[in-house]
Specification:
Layout (H helix, E strand, L loop, with lengths): L7 E8 L3 E2 L9 H16 L8 E5 L10 H8 L8 E3 L6 H14 L5 E8 L7 E2 L1 H12 L3 H8 L9 E2 L12 H11 L4 H20 L25 H5 L22 E11 H6 L6 E10 L11 H13 L8 E4 L4 H12 L1 H6 L21 H4 L6 H16 L2 E9 L3 E9 L1
Parallel strand pairs: 3-4, 3-5, 10-11
Antiparallel strand pairs: 1-8, 1-9, 2-8, 5-8, 6-7, 9-12, 11-12
Helix pairs in contact: 1-2, 3-14, 4-5, 6-11
Length: 426
Protein backbone atom coordinates (compact mmCIF):
# COMPACT_ATOMS: atom_id res chain seq x y z
CA UNK A 1 0.00 0.00 0.00
CA UNK A 2 1.10 3.59 -0.55
CA UNK A 3 0.69 6.76 1.47
CA UNK A 4 -0.50 8.69 -1.60
CA UNK A 5 -2.53 7.75 -4.64
CA UNK A 6 -0.64 6.76 -7.77
CA UNK A 7 -1.52 7.45 -11.38
CA UNK A 8 -3.24 4.56 -13.16
CA UNK A 9 -1.74 3.87 -16.56
CA UNK A 10 -3.62 2.48 -19.53
CA UNK A 11 -1.15 0.61 -21.71
CA UNK A 12 -3.64 -0.37 -24.39
CA UNK A 13 -6.38 -2.74 -25.37
CA UNK A 14 -7.36 -5.55 -27.66
CA UNK A 15 -10.68 -6.81 -28.94
CA UNK A 16 -11.88 -9.28 -31.48
CA UNK A 17 -14.09 -8.00 -34.31
CA UNK A 18 -17.68 -7.69 -33.16
CA UNK A 19 -20.16 -9.78 -35.16
CA UNK A 20 -23.92 -9.90 -35.40
CA UNK A 21 -25.55 -12.65 -33.37
CA UNK A 22 -25.77 -16.04 -35.09
CA UNK A 23 -23.23 -15.19 -37.77
CA UNK A 24 -19.45 -15.67 -37.59
CA UNK A 25 -19.26 -16.60 -33.90
CA UNK A 26 -22.34 -18.80 -33.72
CA UNK A 27 -20.25 -21.75 -32.51
CA UNK A 28 -18.07 -19.78 -30.10
CA UNK A 29 -18.63 -19.44 -26.36
CA UNK A 30 -17.97 -16.57 -23.97
CA UNK A 31 -14.93 -18.51 -22.78
CA UNK A 32 -13.58 -18.78 -26.32
CA UNK A 33 -13.93 -15.06 -26.96
CA UNK A 34 -12.71 -13.88 -23.58
CA UNK A 35 -9.64 -16.09 -23.88
CA UNK A 36 -8.99 -14.64 -27.34
CA UNK A 37 -8.93 -11.03 -26.13
CA UNK A 38 -6.74 -11.84 -23.14
CA UNK A 39 -4.33 -13.51 -25.53
CA UNK A 40 -4.62 -10.45 -27.75
CA UNK A 41 -3.27 -8.39 -24.83
CA UNK A 42 -0.56 -10.98 -24.23
CA UNK A 43 0.50 -10.90 -27.87
CA UNK A 44 0.36 -7.12 -28.27
CA UNK A 45 2.42 -6.41 -25.14
CA UNK A 46 4.66 -9.49 -25.04
CA UNK A 47 3.25 -10.90 -21.80
CA UNK A 48 3.50 -14.62 -22.57
CA UNK A 49 3.67 -16.45 -19.25
CA UNK A 50 3.43 -13.20 -17.27
CA UNK A 51 1.76 -13.26 -13.86
CA UNK A 52 -0.58 -10.30 -13.55
CA UNK A 53 -2.13 -9.29 -10.26
CA UNK A 54 -5.74 -9.68 -11.47
CA UNK A 55 -8.01 -10.19 -14.43
CA UNK A 56 -11.49 -8.82 -13.84
CA UNK A 57 -14.04 -9.74 -16.48
CA UNK A 58 -17.63 -10.79 -16.97
CA UNK A 59 -20.56 -11.43 -19.27
CA UNK A 60 -24.22 -10.45 -19.15
CA UNK A 61 -25.57 -13.52 -20.95
CA UNK A 62 -23.96 -16.61 -19.51
CA UNK A 63 -24.46 -20.27 -18.72
CA UNK A 64 -24.19 -21.83 -15.29
CA UNK A 65 -20.95 -23.39 -16.52
CA UNK A 66 -19.55 -19.84 -16.76
CA UNK A 67 -19.71 -19.30 -12.98
CA UNK A 68 -15.93 -18.78 -12.84
CA UNK A 69 -15.56 -17.28 -16.31
CA UNK A 70 -12.66 -14.89 -15.69
CA UNK A 71 -10.52 -17.50 -13.98
CA UNK A 72 -11.24 -20.13 -16.62
CA UNK A 73 -10.28 -17.67 -19.34
CA UNK A 74 -6.99 -16.97 -17.57
CA UNK A 75 -6.29 -20.69 -17.37
CA UNK A 76 -7.09 -21.04 -21.07
CA UNK A 77 -4.88 -18.09 -22.01
CA UNK A 78 -1.12 -17.62 -22.32
CA UNK A 79 -0.93 -15.70 -19.05
CA UNK A 80 0.63 -17.40 -16.06
CA UNK A 81 -1.90 -19.69 -14.34
CA UNK A 82 -0.90 -17.91 -11.13
CA UNK A 83 -2.95 -14.89 -12.28
CA UNK A 84 -6.23 -14.61 -10.32
CA UNK A 85 -9.48 -14.18 -12.24
CA UNK A 86 -12.45 -12.30 -10.79
CA UNK A 87 -15.85 -12.51 -12.48
CA UNK A 88 -18.26 -9.58 -12.16
CA UNK A 89 -21.32 -8.21 -13.92
CA UNK A 90 -22.87 -4.76 -14.18
CA UNK A 91 -24.81 -5.20 -17.40
CA UNK A 92 -23.40 -3.06 -20.23
CA UNK A 93 -21.05 -1.29 -17.81
CA UNK A 94 -19.31 -4.51 -16.77
CA UNK A 95 -15.86 -4.03 -18.28
CA UNK A 96 -15.75 -0.29 -17.54
CA UNK A 97 -16.57 -1.07 -13.93
CA UNK A 98 -13.86 -3.74 -14.00
CA UNK A 99 -11.39 -1.08 -15.14
CA UNK A 100 -12.48 1.24 -12.33
CA UNK A 101 -12.12 -1.57 -9.79
CA UNK A 102 -8.60 -2.34 -10.95
CA UNK A 103 -7.73 1.35 -11.08
CA UNK A 104 -8.70 1.83 -7.45
CA UNK A 105 -6.43 -1.04 -6.39
CA UNK A 106 -3.56 0.20 -8.53
CA UNK A 107 -3.94 3.78 -7.28
CA UNK A 108 -3.64 2.77 -3.62
CA UNK A 109 -0.82 0.31 -4.22
CA UNK A 110 -2.76 -2.87 -3.56
CA UNK A 111 -1.87 -4.27 -6.99
CA UNK A 112 0.44 -3.30 -9.86
CA UNK A 113 -1.28 -4.65 -12.98
CA UNK A 114 -4.51 -6.07 -14.28
CA UNK A 115 -6.72 -6.69 -17.29
CA UNK A 116 -10.32 -5.47 -17.42
CA UNK A 117 -12.43 -7.32 -19.94
CA UNK A 118 -15.91 -8.29 -21.01
CA UNK A 119 -17.52 -10.74 -23.38
CA UNK A 120 -20.99 -11.57 -24.57
CA UNK A 121 -22.72 -13.84 -27.03
CA UNK A 122 -26.40 -14.04 -27.77
CA UNK A 123 -25.69 -16.84 -30.27
CA UNK A 124 -24.90 -19.15 -27.35
CA UNK A 125 -27.68 -17.96 -25.06
CA UNK A 126 -28.62 -20.35 -22.23
CA UNK A 127 -31.81 -22.30 -22.85
CA UNK A 128 -33.44 -23.45 -19.62
CA UNK A 129 -36.54 -25.40 -18.65
CA UNK A 130 -39.41 -24.21 -16.50
CA UNK A 131 -39.37 -24.41 -12.71
CA UNK A 132 -41.54 -27.54 -12.53
CA UNK A 133 -39.24 -29.64 -14.70
CA UNK A 134 -36.11 -28.18 -13.09
CA UNK A 135 -37.35 -29.16 -9.61
CA UNK A 136 -38.25 -32.61 -10.92
CA UNK A 137 -34.68 -33.07 -12.21
CA UNK A 138 -33.22 -32.00 -8.87
CA UNK A 139 -35.42 -34.46 -7.01
CA UNK A 140 -34.52 -37.16 -9.52
CA UNK A 141 -30.81 -36.63 -8.89
CA UNK A 142 -31.47 -37.06 -5.17
CA UNK A 143 -33.48 -40.28 -5.56
CA UNK A 144 -31.64 -43.39 -4.46
CA UNK A 145 -33.96 -46.26 -5.41
CA UNK A 146 -35.97 -47.14 -8.49
CA UNK A 147 -39.19 -46.62 -6.55
CA UNK A 148 -38.11 -43.11 -5.55
CA UNK A 149 -37.21 -42.32 -9.16
CA UNK A 150 -40.58 -43.52 -10.41
CA UNK A 151 -42.35 -41.41 -7.79
CA UNK A 152 -40.44 -38.33 -8.93
CA UNK A 153 -41.51 -38.96 -12.53
CA UNK A 154 -45.17 -39.48 -11.60
CA UNK A 155 -47.37 -36.91 -13.29
CA UNK A 156 -44.73 -35.90 -15.82
CA UNK A 157 -46.10 -34.35 -19.01
CA UNK A 158 -44.25 -33.49 -22.25
CA UNK A 159 -45.31 -29.86 -21.78
CA UNK A 160 -42.73 -29.57 -19.00
CA UNK A 161 -40.00 -29.89 -21.64
CA UNK A 162 -40.93 -26.61 -23.28
CA UNK A 163 -37.84 -24.42 -22.91
CA UNK A 164 -37.95 -20.92 -21.46
CA UNK A 165 -36.51 -18.61 -24.11
CA UNK A 166 -34.04 -15.98 -22.91
CA UNK A 167 -35.18 -12.36 -23.13
CA UNK A 168 -33.52 -8.97 -22.78
CA UNK A 169 -36.49 -7.46 -21.00
CA UNK A 170 -36.33 -5.74 -17.65
CA UNK A 171 -37.59 -8.10 -14.96
CA UNK A 172 -39.45 -5.40 -13.04
CA UNK A 173 -41.27 -3.86 -16.00
CA UNK A 174 -41.44 -6.62 -18.58
CA UNK A 175 -40.35 -4.11 -21.21
CA UNK A 176 -37.31 -4.49 -23.44
CA UNK A 177 -34.54 -1.92 -23.43
CA UNK A 178 -35.75 -0.75 -26.82
CA UNK A 179 -39.27 -0.20 -25.54
CA UNK A 180 -37.92 1.79 -22.62
CA UNK A 181 -35.75 3.86 -24.96
CA UNK A 182 -38.71 4.53 -27.24
CA UNK A 183 -40.51 5.98 -24.23
CA UNK A 184 -37.49 8.18 -23.57
CA UNK A 185 -37.40 9.34 -27.18
CA UNK A 186 -41.04 10.37 -27.00
CA UNK A 187 -40.60 12.09 -23.63
CA UNK A 188 -37.64 14.11 -24.93
CA UNK A 189 -39.22 14.58 -28.38
CA UNK A 190 -36.27 13.03 -30.21
CA UNK A 191 -36.95 12.99 -33.95
CA UNK A 192 -36.48 9.89 -36.10
CA UNK A 193 -34.38 11.78 -38.63
CA UNK A 194 -31.96 12.95 -35.93
CA UNK A 195 -31.52 9.37 -34.76
CA UNK A 196 -30.87 8.16 -38.29
CA UNK A 197 -28.36 10.97 -38.81
CA UNK A 198 -26.40 9.95 -35.71
CA UNK A 199 -26.42 6.29 -36.82
CA UNK A 200 -25.26 7.27 -40.31
CA UNK A 201 -22.40 9.30 -38.89
CA UNK A 202 -21.36 6.42 -36.60
CA UNK A 203 -21.01 4.03 -39.56
CA UNK A 204 -19.15 6.58 -41.68
CA UNK A 205 -16.73 7.48 -38.88
CA UNK A 206 -15.99 3.83 -38.06
CA UNK A 207 -15.44 2.96 -41.72
CA UNK A 208 -13.06 5.90 -42.11
CA UNK A 209 -11.19 4.86 -38.96
CA UNK A 210 -10.72 1.33 -40.33
CA UNK A 211 -9.41 2.66 -43.63
CA UNK A 212 -7.01 4.98 -41.79
CA UNK A 213 -5.59 2.05 -39.79
CA UNK A 214 -6.84 3.28 -36.42
CA UNK A 215 -8.06 -0.19 -35.44
CA UNK A 216 -5.01 -2.10 -36.67
CA UNK A 217 -3.57 -2.67 -33.21
CA UNK A 218 -6.86 -2.59 -31.31
CA UNK A 219 -8.60 -5.39 -33.23
CA UNK A 220 -7.22 -8.93 -33.13
CA UNK A 221 -8.56 -11.23 -35.91
CA UNK A 222 -10.59 -14.14 -34.60
CA UNK A 223 -12.28 -17.12 -36.21
CA UNK A 224 -11.38 -15.85 -39.67
CA UNK A 225 -12.87 -12.39 -39.06
CA UNK A 226 -10.80 -9.21 -39.13
CA UNK A 227 -13.49 -6.49 -39.17
CA UNK A 228 -16.81 -5.86 -37.42
CA UNK A 229 -19.53 -7.33 -39.63
CA UNK A 230 -22.21 -4.96 -38.37
CA UNK A 231 -20.40 -2.04 -39.98
CA UNK A 232 -22.12 -0.68 -43.09
CA UNK A 233 -19.77 1.68 -44.89
CA UNK A 234 -22.27 2.03 -47.74
CA UNK A 235 -25.28 2.96 -45.65
CA UNK A 236 -27.20 6.12 -46.49
CA UNK A 237 -29.73 8.31 -44.76
CA UNK A 238 -32.35 7.06 -47.24
CA UNK A 239 -31.60 3.42 -46.41
CA UNK A 240 -31.86 4.11 -42.69
CA UNK A 241 -35.09 6.06 -43.15
CA UNK A 242 -36.66 3.18 -45.06
CA UNK A 243 -36.42 0.77 -42.12
CA UNK A 244 -39.58 0.16 -40.16
CA UNK A 245 -39.84 1.00 -36.48
CA UNK A 246 -39.58 -1.93 -34.09
CA UNK A 247 -40.49 -0.95 -30.52
CA UNK A 248 -43.78 0.89 -30.97
CA UNK A 249 -46.36 1.56 -33.63
CA UNK A 250 -46.37 4.46 -36.11
CA UNK A 251 -46.77 7.35 -36.22
CA UNK A 252 -45.19 8.08 -32.84
CA UNK A 253 -42.56 5.32 -33.02
CA UNK A 254 -39.00 6.43 -33.87
CA UNK A 255 -36.58 3.57 -33.10
CA UNK A 256 -35.60 1.23 -35.93
CA UNK A 257 -33.06 -1.56 -36.41
CA UNK A 258 -30.83 1.01 -38.08
CA UNK A 259 -30.66 3.48 -35.21
CA UNK A 260 -30.50 0.79 -32.50
CA UNK A 261 -27.65 -1.61 -31.78
CA UNK A 262 -28.08 -5.15 -33.03
CA UNK A 263 -27.55 -8.23 -30.89
CA UNK A 264 -23.80 -8.78 -31.09
CA UNK A 265 -21.17 -11.36 -30.16
CA UNK A 266 -17.68 -10.28 -29.16
CA UNK A 267 -15.16 -9.49 -26.44
CA UNK A 268 -12.73 -6.72 -25.49
CA UNK A 269 -9.95 -6.19 -22.95
CA UNK A 270 -7.68 -3.42 -21.71
CA UNK A 271 -4.40 -3.53 -19.74
CA UNK A 272 -4.00 -1.20 -16.75
CA UNK A 273 -1.03 -0.84 -14.42
CA UNK A 274 1.11 1.43 -12.30
CA UNK A 275 3.70 3.61 -14.01
CA UNK A 276 6.40 1.62 -12.25
CA UNK A 277 5.10 -1.67 -13.67
CA UNK A 278 4.86 -0.21 -17.17
CA UNK A 279 8.44 1.05 -16.96
CA UNK A 280 9.71 -2.27 -15.65
CA UNK A 281 8.10 -4.04 -18.61
CA UNK A 282 9.25 -1.39 -21.12
CA UNK A 283 5.67 -0.57 -22.07
CA UNK A 284 4.61 2.93 -23.15
CA UNK A 285 1.61 4.53 -21.46
CA UNK A 286 -1.22 5.64 -23.76
CA UNK A 287 -3.29 7.49 -21.17
CA UNK A 288 -4.28 7.60 -17.51
CA UNK A 289 -7.59 6.60 -15.95
CA UNK A 290 -8.33 9.50 -13.63
CA UNK A 291 -11.69 8.79 -12.02
CA UNK A 292 -15.11 7.29 -12.54
CA UNK A 293 -18.60 7.15 -11.17
CA UNK A 294 -21.67 4.89 -11.17
CA UNK A 295 -25.26 6.01 -10.69
CA UNK A 296 -28.78 4.62 -10.95
CA UNK A 297 -32.26 5.90 -11.74
CA UNK A 298 -35.70 4.74 -10.57
CA UNK A 299 -36.87 3.47 -13.95
CA UNK A 300 -39.56 1.33 -12.34
CA UNK A 301 -41.30 4.55 -11.34
CA UNK A 302 -40.99 6.14 -14.78
CA UNK A 303 -37.50 7.59 -14.88
CA UNK A 304 -35.92 6.80 -18.23
CA UNK A 305 -34.17 3.43 -18.08
CA UNK A 306 -31.06 4.70 -19.86
CA UNK A 307 -30.80 8.14 -18.27
CA UNK A 308 -28.49 7.17 -15.40
CA UNK A 309 -25.33 8.37 -17.24
CA UNK A 310 -26.69 11.92 -17.02
CA UNK A 311 -26.60 11.54 -13.25
CA UNK A 312 -23.25 9.72 -13.10
CA UNK A 313 -21.48 12.31 -15.25
CA UNK A 314 -22.99 15.24 -13.32
CA UNK A 315 -21.90 13.75 -9.99
CA UNK A 316 -18.43 12.95 -11.31
CA UNK A 317 -17.92 16.47 -12.64
CA UNK A 318 -19.06 17.95 -9.34
CA UNK A 319 -16.37 15.92 -7.59
CA UNK A 320 -13.60 16.82 -10.04
CA UNK A 321 -14.60 20.44 -10.58
CA UNK A 322 -14.59 20.03 -14.36
CA UNK A 323 -17.07 21.49 -16.78
CA UNK A 324 -18.76 19.30 -19.37
CA UNK A 325 -16.98 21.29 -22.06
CA UNK A 326 -13.47 20.58 -20.66
CA UNK A 327 -12.81 17.52 -22.84
CA UNK A 328 -11.24 16.84 -26.20
CA UNK A 329 -13.22 13.63 -26.82
CA UNK A 330 -16.60 12.30 -25.71
CA UNK A 331 -17.22 8.57 -25.95
CA UNK A 332 -20.92 8.05 -25.32
CA UNK A 333 -22.05 4.46 -25.78
CA UNK A 334 -24.61 4.27 -28.56
CA UNK A 335 -27.00 1.66 -27.21
CA UNK A 336 -29.55 3.58 -29.26
CA UNK A 337 -29.14 6.82 -31.14
CA UNK A 338 -32.10 8.09 -29.11
CA UNK A 339 -30.29 7.39 -25.85
CA UNK A 340 -27.33 9.54 -26.87
CA UNK A 341 -29.62 12.37 -27.97
CA UNK A 342 -31.72 12.15 -24.79
CA UNK A 343 -28.53 12.40 -22.73
CA UNK A 344 -27.28 15.44 -24.63
CA UNK A 345 -30.69 17.12 -24.36
CA UNK A 346 -30.84 16.44 -20.64
CA UNK A 347 -27.48 18.06 -20.02
CA UNK A 348 -28.70 21.13 -21.92
CA UNK A 349 -32.04 21.28 -20.08
CA UNK A 350 -32.28 23.88 -17.32
CA UNK A 351 -35.29 22.12 -15.80
CA UNK A 352 -33.74 18.64 -15.81
CA UNK A 353 -30.39 19.80 -14.48
CA UNK A 354 -32.13 21.75 -11.72
CA UNK A 355 -34.83 19.30 -10.64
CA UNK A 356 -33.12 15.96 -11.28
CA UNK A 357 -29.41 16.74 -11.00
CA UNK A 358 -29.65 19.48 -8.37
CA UNK A 359 -27.52 21.90 -10.35
CA UNK A 360 -27.82 25.68 -10.38
CA UNK A 361 -27.41 25.79 -14.16
CA UNK A 362 -27.37 23.30 -17.03
CA UNK A 363 -24.24 21.31 -17.77
CA UNK A 364 -24.63 22.67 -21.28
CA UNK A 365 -23.86 21.37 -24.75
CA UNK A 366 -20.79 19.66 -26.14
CA UNK A 367 -19.01 20.09 -29.45
CA UNK A 368 -20.57 17.34 -31.58
CA UNK A 369 -17.37 17.16 -33.66
CA UNK A 370 -15.70 15.65 -30.58
CA UNK A 371 -18.39 12.96 -30.07
CA UNK A 372 -17.57 9.33 -30.93
CA UNK A 373 -15.07 10.50 -33.53
CA UNK A 374 -14.31 6.97 -34.78
CA UNK A 375 -17.85 5.66 -34.54
CA UNK A 376 -19.33 3.69 -31.69
CA UNK A 377 -21.77 0.91 -30.87
CA UNK A 378 -24.30 1.63 -33.62
CA UNK A 379 -21.59 0.91 -36.18
CA UNK A 380 -19.30 -1.67 -34.59
CA UNK A 381 -21.88 -3.49 -32.47
CA UNK A 382 -22.53 -3.97 -28.78
CA UNK A 383 -21.63 -7.26 -27.05
CA UNK A 384 -23.03 -6.06 -23.73
CA UNK A 385 -20.19 -6.62 -21.24
CA UNK A 386 -17.46 -5.92 -23.81
CA UNK A 387 -18.42 -2.35 -24.69
CA UNK A 388 -16.77 -0.60 -21.73
CA UNK A 389 -13.34 -2.11 -22.43
CA UNK A 390 -13.73 -1.34 -26.13
CA UNK A 391 -14.41 2.31 -25.35
CA UNK A 392 -11.57 2.66 -22.82
CA UNK A 393 -9.09 1.19 -25.32
CA UNK A 394 -10.45 3.36 -28.13
CA UNK A 395 -10.22 6.56 -26.11
CA UNK A 396 -6.73 5.75 -24.86
CA UNK A 397 -5.64 5.24 -28.47
CA UNK A 398 -7.23 8.54 -29.49
CA UNK A 399 -5.38 10.40 -26.73
CA UNK A 400 -2.08 8.81 -27.66
CA UNK A 401 -2.57 9.72 -31.31
CA UNK A 402 -3.39 13.31 -30.35
CA UNK A 403 -0.39 13.50 -28.05
CA UNK A 404 -2.29 15.02 -25.13
CA UNK A 405 -5.81 15.75 -24.00
CA UNK A 406 -8.74 14.53 -21.97
CA UNK A 407 -11.72 12.33 -22.71
CA UNK A 408 -15.04 11.54 -21.05
CA UNK A 409 -16.73 8.12 -21.20
CA UNK A 410 -20.44 7.57 -20.62
CA UNK A 411 -22.07 4.13 -20.68
CA UNK A 412 -25.74 3.37 -20.02
CA UNK A 413 -26.71 -0.06 -18.74
CA UNK A 414 -29.69 -2.28 -18.18
CA UNK A 415 -31.23 -2.05 -14.75
CA UNK A 416 -31.32 1.75 -14.90
CA UNK A 417 -27.60 2.28 -14.22
CA UNK A 418 -24.84 4.33 -15.75
CA UNK A 419 -21.04 4.22 -15.52
CA UNK A 420 -18.70 7.04 -16.54
CA UNK A 421 -14.99 7.81 -16.42
CA UNK A 422 -12.35 10.36 -17.32
CA UNK A 423 -9.12 9.57 -19.18
CA UNK A 424 -6.28 11.97 -19.83
CA UNK A 425 -2.86 12.17 -21.42
CA UNK A 426 -0.83 15.09 -20.04
Amino acid sequence: MTDSLRRVAIVGGSRIPFCRSNTMYADNSNLDMLTAVIDGIVQRFDLDGEQLDEVQAGAVIHHSKDFNLAREAVLSSKLSPLTPGITLQQACGTSLQAALNLAAKIACGQIESGIAAGTDTTSDAPIVFGDKFARRMIHLSQARTMKQRLNVLKGFSPGELKPVSPTNGEVRTGLSMGQHCERMAQEWQIKREDQDQLAYESHKKAATAYEAGFFDELVTPFNGVSRDNNLRADTTIDKLASLRTVFDKPPKATLSAGNSTSLTDGAAAVLLCSEEWAKAHDLPVQAYLITGRSAAVDFVNDEGLLMAPTVAVAEMLQRTGDKLQDFDFYEIHEAFAAQVLCTLNAWESKEYCSKRLGLKKPLGSIDREKLNVNGSSLAVGHPFAATGARIVATLAQLLEDKGSGRGLISVCTAGGMGVCAILERP
